[in-house]
Amino acid sequence: MATATKKTAAKPAAAAKKPAAEKPAARKPNAAFMKPMTISPTLAAVIGAAPMPRTEVTKKVWEYIKKHNLQDAENKRNINADDKLKAVFGGKKQVSMFEMTKLISGHLS
């Protein structure tokens, strides 16, 4: 008799599952990240002067880094700065990718 109660207890749990069609919608991007930002003249020398969202600024900087092969060969998390990026990075020759985003945010308003 104990097996019969286990079977009946399992049926309501199976019925409570959501159908596949009711998946949650994709997340909407945060409006603060999509707001066009004014770019400093120093950063504009690298990515252009047109106002763009933070997400686009990051993409453009990475495009520049990849195009000029500035990622460190030994440690891919480090960026070796050329003359233009050195001005953006406050004179540093090498920064980590995490430090890079912090330094770039100082050039946006």
TrEMBL record:
PROSITE patterns: SWIB_MDM2. InterPro entries: SWIB_domain (IPR019835), SWIB_MDM2_dom_sf (IPR036885), SWIB_MDM2_domain (IPR003121). Pfam families: SWIB. It comes from the Bacteria. Residues 1-33 are annotated as: Disordered. Residues 1-18 have a biased composition (Low complexity). Residues 32-109 form the DM2 domain. This is DM2 domain-containing protein.
